[in-house]
Every structure is written in structure tokens, then in C-alpha cells.
Design brief:
heterotrimer, A mainly beta, B mainly alpha, C alpha+beta, B: mainly alpha, Serine Threonine Protein Phosphatase 5, Tetratricopeptide repeat, 2 domains, rod-shaped, C: 60s Ribosomal Protein L30, Chain: A, four-stranded mixed sheet, 47% helix
């Protein structure tokens, strides 16, 4: 079993899903990514117990299979849908779904079809209301079994919903389920960001006076003012250790990137150009910050040390770049580039080399990494109204998250594990 | 409000004129009353009244004329003031625009220079400078170079002996890129090894100051401020013309601060501002010096 | 001559003279007519219009805040620019006159952008636009304390289209 896992990991690495490419001229070939997915087969969970067991277990089958398919690790064959068949599955996913008056138990299993050997067996318990979480947890365990790293099925996405001239802060599961608002201010909300433990959301709101930096605990959803200095207070982003917040302030005249402590105090200015400096994004080490500056005329992504030293432009190959997002693995930076056709999403190495376009068509904005760095969520009007989309970065077409027809933008992906819903 | 002030004077004058007129009429009528109703007197009174009326009419016309002149003047002044204000605002605005343009031009120039430098580093960085094989301050050496700016460092000056055999092992750019990726991803041990490897094998390459700075970053990231200070200090000492010097000096001062050597830290910042007034790090330094004074 | 006649004549004179003087001066405070020195008993029929000009001196007060704000015209910008064009400056000159006549009025100077570019960058760009307008008006002696710049970024478009016709309407600074 360990042998199998090691081989699979090696396979994944060699196919470029996990990029450890070194030389400059090696580019991630995203179009080949789809073929690197592992075939896997889902069989229905066996319902037992309560009379409700059958209906929820059928739903759980779907959630589980969707999670595995959306992980970008697997090609999923669903035994109840012959159109999804794949050749030579590397694992059979199934188990027991037991519903009792006290709750639900999922006893999940993964078998090696070649030797008919059990390679994973896990048990999760939860309340009836929380049955989806059980399926998510099992999916993450399956992904961990094959890749060595847990999946992101239990994560959530915070975002902004535009309704006419107002914008509210919302949150939902990463699969689009359970979307609900966190603010009801009839004001404006911009740029939400999770704290590294996932318990807090920093965001910009006009609920007070002008753009100010607020934070709320997901447990009580009560906004607390972080920074209400003169002018703009925006783009609050927690450092990976949670001790600092990088943000944009304009109290000294024009927009500059600052670092505050986690309570919003002791501002340290990191930039001092005459132009706009904004949209900071931390490297996962907390040692560097990518940001947008128009010091040279048009917006461009720059990278600097966390103390503000050594600023350098990320890439000279594109005329207009913005909205940097540093991958949680540290090896890539996603950003938006303006091209003739619109706004596209690119990914490159932190030194700016090897930039490739990963999303194009329409206006694509605000890319944010999933915690496993396999996906980007972004907002786009690619099929008309603004909505949230996810790309798996492997050449497969992006998929839209169902937000009930609401105009959704400015996403932020929560870290793992997701906190308990309020 | 100002408008009322401009009216005050002509109004007063007119008021005076009218007062005189009224007094005359009263005087006349008083004279008439005392003598009774005789025709000649009446005629006299009438003619007096007539002349008074013409006087009043003239005065009224004159008043209107002078008022119009005044109004014109006032409008003129308002127009001039308006023009002046508009010009002032316009000039302020375009001065701002000019300043913005200038600084953008400045930044563009900076970037062009940088781009050129990067390109030249990447294309022929390993060849052009004289390749110096140094009896290296062994990989582990942490000989403290405490006063970087003042003490000239002699290590690289020790005579060039044998150029290292070319085309063996990775080139300096590859070494640098890998070490930098390691640094970015938090593999500080590997990164430090990479930078030191580069410095040992290619001590005079254009990227050397970057690598030396990177070595400092490896220690700084691990909160080893004393070792970081040593590495940062080597940047201005060994590569005084390197483009990482201002950043290294600023980080050196941060280390000194955190090691409780506030005086040295302050001096490093002042040296930085004096030597590289236009570097972006000097602005950070000025902020720090300012904050310390407060 | 009968004193009543004289009084009558006086009255006629006064009535004749006053409107002639009165109509030549508009919106101006009327000086009070000094009473005759000799015949202080003579009732000087001066319909002193003193209270009226006081009202006229500050007509804006009677105007509602909304009505004044409505007179303030919106300023438009080129793509990615915070430069005040000569048209924009002419508009602001007119706005400045209105604001100067309404010194008690506080207005919000809202900066706006078109839909292109990120929320974050546009917030900053709209702030630059609003600040540019505030600076211009301040240079024209409008009190800075009465002007509150608010950067709305691209959150409040006037036109929802995805073409230059809509974009050019949305790149603006408007008063509220």
C-alpha cells in the first residue's frame, strides 16, 4: 500500500501536477494535466438503519463523487452512471451509511481493485443536519491516501454579493452549498481574507465612514473595526503566522502598502512611491509580499521583502498585471493580466519566469488559491453575469460555482480545516 | 458678503444727496406756509418745485449711471478673481500631474535600467567580469565584519589565480534561481547552501551581491539576527556597487536594532540615506529615523 | 399756503422719488432716510424695505441642500487617468462658484471608475480622482473641511453596459 502511494506520488510529480520544475525553460504544460488524473470508481454507499437512510445516502454518494472529481486528482467513474466509466480504476470507493435517531455514521472504504485489498478504512460520525460534512471528510481522506495531502472538500469560500448599489459579505462551502450572508449593512464590502486559522475574516467595508478595515469572527459574525484611518483602509491580509496584517492605507496622501499588528495598530509603511501601491499578498513563509503598483504608469505586480526592501517587478513580459496571489506552496504567483481580449489569469514562478495563461475569455478577476494550491477560484463574467468560477489549472475548463444566480465576486478561500459554521 | 461691502460707499453718498433734497423741500414749503395762499408765491413755489424735480431727476439718472458703472466694475473684478482662482486651481492640478509624470518617468527609467541589468546578468553574467578564485572564507566562516561601510574588505582582492574550469556543474544563474526558490519556499538550509555554493564558485559574478543578500535573508528568516547581520554587512563591504546594497544596509540596521544595538542601527540608517538618497530603502530608513525621533 | 397742501406735495414728491431710487438698486440694502431736521413732525413716509434685502442677501439658505447639490455638475476622466481635462476644470470652476455661495454646505466628493481592472486598484484610482477634485476646489478657496472625498471604485456604475459609451460615463467624480 505504501508502495502504491509512493508510485502514485511519483507519477503525479512527474506529470507536473506538483511542479518542481527547475530550469527556466521548463513550462508547466497545463493541457496535459487532465490526463494525469487517476481513474477511480465510486460505488454507492450501503444505507442501513433509519427509513431516511436511503435518500440521504444517495445524496452523499453524489457529494462524495463530486468532491473526488473536483479535487483535480481523480477521474471519477460513478457506478450508477455508466457514461462516466473509466478504464482501469486505481481504487474503489464505497462504504456504509448508517442513519439512527442519534445521528449518522459513515464507514468509508477504499479497495485496490487489482488485489481486492482494503487500502483505506475510516469512520466518521455526525448529526443528521451535518451529513454533508461526513462525505467531505471522507473525500479528503481518500485524496490524502493517494496524494499524501488532504483534500479541500471541507473548506469554504467567502465572497461578496453585489445587489444593485450595495454589496454584502457572504460565505459558502467550497462546493457552493450553504451560501448565506454575513453582513446586512446595505453598504459596500470589498476584499475579504481569512485569518490563517480560518476563524476570522478581515474585509473592507463602507459601513462606517468610507473604506475601513473590519474583522469578524465567523463564530458571531460581529464586525469589529481594525483600521479607520484617514482615507483608504483596504485589502487587509493576514500574514501566515497571523501576527500581522498587510493592507493599503492612504493616510499619508496616496495609497501605500503597510503592515499592521493583528489588532490594527503600529502601522509600518513598506512602500513610498508616488503612484498607487495596493493589493498585498504574502508569501507562505511570510518573508515576502507581492503587491500591485502603478509607479511605472500602468498597474504591475511587484515583489518585495516583508520589510519593504528590495522591490522588484514580477514580470516584464506583460503590460498590465494586477491582483497577485501567492500560492500556499510558495512556488507560484497567480495574477491578472490585461490583454487585448480582456482580463486573463496567469501563473508564474515567484521570480517572474515561466508565466503561463491559465484562464482567458471575458473579464476574469481576483484569483485566489485553494489551500492545496491545486485550484484557483476567481470571479468572471465569462458567461454573462459576474459569478465565481474554479479552475483546476490542468487545462480542463473552469467550472462555475452555483450561487443561486447572485452576482458574486471577490472570493477568498478558507484554509483547512474549515471552522464550524456559525 | 463681500458684495455688500462694495456697495457701502455709493449708498452712503446717495443717502446724503437725498437728505439734502428733502431738507430743501421742507424749507421751501415752510416759507410758503408762513405767508398764506397768494398766486405769485404759488407760482414761485411751483417753479421751485419744478427745478427741484429736474434736479431730482438728474440725480436719479446720475445715480443710475454711476450704479451701472459700479456694477460693471464689480463684475469685472469678479471675472478677474474668477479667472485668477481658476488659473490657480488649474496650475495646482497640472503641477500635480507633472510631478506624477516625472516620477513615473523616473520609475520607467529605473525599470528600464533594471531590465537591462537583469538581461545582461542572465545572458553573460558568468563570463564578463574577471572570474576570481578566492581562497574562500570557508563555507562555514562567519568572520564578523561589523563595520561594513568603513572597513575596506580585502578578500576579493587577493590575487586572481586560476579561473575555475568552465562548464562544470550548474551555471551561476541556475544556482541562484534554485537557492532563491528554496528561500521563497522556506527551505532556508538548502537556500543558504546554494548561495554559499554560488559565492564560493563564482565570487565575482554580477549576481554575487544578490546571493550574499540572500544568505542574510536565510538567517533573518530564522530569527538569527546576529548571523544575518554578519551576512548583510558583507554586501556593502564586498560589493559596494551591487544593487542590493541599500536593501542589505536597511536589513543590517533592523538586525542591529533587534540585537539591542540601537546606536549602530541608527548610524547604518544614516549612512544608507546619505549614500543612496534615491533608493526606496532610504525612504524606509527616513521613516524609521523619523519614528525613532518621535 | 395751507400746511395740508404742502404735506400733500411732500407726500407726492416722496412717493415719486422713492420708487425711482428704489428700482435702480436691486438686492441692496436701503439706507435709512434721515428724518428732516427742521420739521420733525412731518411724517416721512418711507416704506423702509430694510428687512427685505436681508433675506435677499443669502438666497441659498432658502434653497434646499438637494437643489444645490443638483446644480453641481459631474466631472469625467480619461481611462486610467486622474488628470483634470480643461472641460473638467471648466465644470469645476462652475461648481466652485456654487460651493462658494453655499459655504455652509458639506458635500461628499465621490470618485468612481469604470468596470475594468481590479476592485482594489480601482478603489485607489477613484480616490486619486476624488482627491484631485478636492485639491482643485480647495485651490479655488472652497473650504477643504466641507469636502469629503470617498473612493467608490467601480462599485457604483451609472451605466451598466460593457462598452466605451458606458465606461466613459462611469469614470467620474460626482457630488452628493
Amino acid at each position: 500500500m505504501r508502495q502504491l502511494f509512493r508510485n502514485l506520488l511519483l507519477l503525479l510529480c512527474s506529470l507536473g501536477v506538483v511542479s518542481i520544475a527547475r530550469a527556466d525553460d521548463v513550462k508547466l504544460d497545463i493541457s496535459s494535466g487532465a490526463t494525469s488524473r487517476l481513474p477511480i470508481r465510486c460505488v454507492p454507499l450501503t444505507p442501513t438503519g433509519d427509513k431516511d437512510a436511503r435518500s440521504t445516502s444517495t445524496q452523499a454518494d453524489q457529494v462524495l463523487a463530486d468532491d473526488l472529481a473536483h479535487s483535480a486528482v481523480f477521474t471519477v467513474a460513478r457506478s450508477w452512471d455508466t457514461s462516466t466509466d473509466t478504464a482501469d480504476p486505481q481504487g474503489i470507493v464505497g462504504g456504509k451509511w448508517t442513519v439512527t435517531s442519534t445521528g449518522i455514521t459513515l464507514a468509508g472504504e477504499v479497495r485496490d481493485p487489482h488485489q481486492n485489498k482494503l487500502i483505506l478504512s475510516v469512520t466518521y460520525k455526525g448529526t443528521r443536519a451535518n451529513w454533508r460534512r461526513l462525505a467531505h471528510q471522507f473525500a479528503d481522506a481518500v485524496i490524502q491516501q493517494f496524494t499524501g495531502e488532504s483534500g479541500i472538500s471541507s473548506t469554504r469560500i467567502a465572497f461578496v454579493v453585489r445587489d444593485g448599489r450595495t454589496r454584502e459579505l457572504w460565505i459558502m462551502d467550497a462546493d457552493g452549498y450553504d451560501a448565506h450572508p454575513l453582513t446586512h449593512d446595505k453598504s459596500l464590502v470589498l476584499s475579504p481574507n481569512f485569518s490563517p486559522d480560518g476563524s476570522l475574516l478581515a474585509f473592507t467595508s463602507y459601513r462606517g465612514s468610507g473604506p475601513q478595515l473590519w474583522v469578524m469572527s465567523l463564530a458571531d459574525a460581529k464586525p469589529v473595526l481594525l483600521s479607520g484611518r484617514k482615507g483608504i483602509n483596504a485589502c487587509g491580509t493576514y500574514s501566515p503566522d497571523g501576527r500581522n496584517i498587510a493592507c493599503t492605507l492612504s493616510m499619508d496622501g496616496n495609497s501605500e502598502v503597510y503592515v499592521l499588528d493583528a489588532r490594527g495598530g503600529s502601522p509600518q509603511r513598506l512602500t513610498s512611491s508616488r503612484g498607487i501601491d495596493t493589493a498585498p499578498s504574502w508569501a507562505p513563509t511570510g518573508r515576502q509580499i507581492a503587491f500591485t503598483s502603478d509607479r511605472a504608469g500602468t498597474p504591475q505586480v511587484y515583489v518585495m521583502d516583508a520589510e519593504g526592501t528590495n522591490p522588484r517587478r514580477l514580470t516584464y513580459d506583460l503590460d498590465y498585471t494586477d491582483s497577485p496571489a501567492w500560492s500556499p506552496k510558495g512556488d507560484r504567483i497567480a495574477f491578472v493580466a490585461r490583454t487585448n481580449e480582456g482580463f486573463d489569469i496567469y501563473v508564474c514562478k515567484p521570480d517572474g519566469e515561466g508565466a503561463i495563461r491559465v484562464v482567458s475569455g471575458g473579464s476574469n478577476e481576483n484569483p485566489r488559491w485553494s489551500p492545496d494550491a491545486r485550484h484557483l477560484v476567481f470571479s468572471s463574467d465569462r458567461d454573462g453575469a459576474k459569478a465565481l468560477w474554479i479552475t483546476d489549472l490542468d487545462g480542463t475548463p473552469p467550472r462555475k460555482i452555483d450561487t443561486g444566480g447572485r452576482k458574486a465576486l471577490s472570493p477568498a478561500w478558507s484554509p483547512r480545516p474549515a471552522t464550524i459554521a456559525p | 458678503m463681500k458684495r455688500r461691502a462694495t456697495h457701502a460707499r455709493p449708498l452712503a453718498a446717495r443717502a446724503g444727496a437725498r437728505a439734502g433734497l428733502l431738507a430743501g423741500v421742507l424749507l421751501l414749503s415752510a416759507a410758503g406756509a408762513s405767508t398764506g395762499c397768494y398766486a405769485p408765491q404759488l407760482a414761485l413755489l411751483k417753479s421751485g418745485l419744478d427745478s427741484l424735480r429736474t434736479q431730482v431727476d438728474t440725480l436719479t439718472v446720475r445715480d443710475a449711471v454711476s450704479y451701472r458703472v459700479l456694477a460693471d466694475t464689480r463684475d469685472d473684478v469678479a471675472r478677474q478673481r474668477e479667472l485668477m482662482l481658476s488659473t490657480k486651481a488649474s496650475v495646482t492640478s497640472s503641477t500635480q500631474d507633472m510631478n506624477d509624470l516625472l516620477s513615473r518617468f523616473d520609475a520607467k527609467l529605473d525599470e528600464a535600467m533594471h531590465l537591462w541589468k537583469v538581461k545582461s546578468e542572465r545572458s553573460g553574467g558568468g563570463i564578463s567580469p574577471p572570474v576570481v578564485s578566492v581562497p574562500p572564507a570557508t563555507a562555514t566562516s562567519t568572520a564578523p565584519v561589523t563595520t561594513p561601510v568603513t572597513t575596506p574588505v580585502t578578500t576579493p582582492a587577493t590575487a586572481p589565480v586560476t579561473p575555475p574550469p568552465a562548464a562544470t556543474g550548474p551555471d551561476p544563474v541556475q544556482l541562484y534561481d534554485q537557492a532563491t526558490l528554496d528561500l521563497t519556499q522556506g527551505r532556508y538550509g538548502l537556500a543558504l547552501q546554494g548561495y554559499r555554493d554560488l559565492l564560493r564558485r563564482f565570487p565575482a559574478v554580477d549576481l554575487a551581491d544578490n546571493a550574499q543578500y540572500g544568505a542574510g535573508e536565510c538567517f533573518f528568516a530564522q530569527v538569527a539576527f546576529d548571523s544575518a547581520a554578519v551576512e548583510y554587512a558583507k554586501v556593502p563591504a564586498s560589493y559596494p556597487k551591487g544593487d542590493r546594497v541599500p536593501a542589505a544596509m536597511y536589513k543590517l540596521s533592523l538586525c542591529q536594532d533587534r540585537l539591542g544595538r540601537a546606536g549602530e542601527a541608527r548610524k547604518t540608517l544614516e549612512d544608507l540615506v546619505r549614500l543612496y538618497p534615491n533608493a526606496s530603502e532610504s525612504q524606509l530608513a527616513r521613516d524609521r529615523i523619523g519614528a525613532a525621533k518621535r | 399756503m395751507n400746511p395740508t397742501n404742502i404735506r400733500r406735495a411732500l407726500l407726492v414728491l416722496a412717493v415719486l422719488a422713492l420708487p425711482a431710487v428704489g428700482c435702480s438698486k436691486k438686492n441692496v440694502k436701503m439706507p435709512e432716510v434721515p428724518p428732516a431736521k427742521t420739521e420733525d413732525k412731518a411724517p416721512v413716509p418711507t416704506p423702509t424695505p430694510a428687512p427685505k434685502p436681508v433675506e435677499e442677501a443669502k438666497p441659498p439658505v432658502s434653497e434646499s441642500r438637494d437643489a444645490v447639490i443638483k446644480q453641481l455638475r459631474t466631472v469625467y476622466f480619461a481611462l486610467d487617468s486622474d488628470v483634470l481635462t480643461s472641460e473638467a476644470q471648466a465644470v469645476l470652476d462652475a461648481d466652485a462658484r456654487i460651493l462658494a455661495a453655499n459655504t455652509s454646505l458639506s458635500v461628499e466628493v465621490g470618485g468612481h471608475c469604470d468596470e475594468r481592472g481590479s476592485e482594489e486598484y480601482n478603489t485607489d484610482l477613484s480616490a486619486r480622482r476624488a482627491n484631485k477634485v478636492v485639491d482643485y476646489l480647495t485651490a479655488r478657496n472652497v473650504a477643504a473641511s466641507k469636502l469629503k472625498p470617498v473612493p467608490y471604485g467601480k462599485t457604483q456604475p451609472i451605466a451598466e453596459g460593457h462598452d466605451e459609451a458606458s465606461w466613459s460615463q462611469n469614470r467620474r467624480v460626482e457630488f452628493k
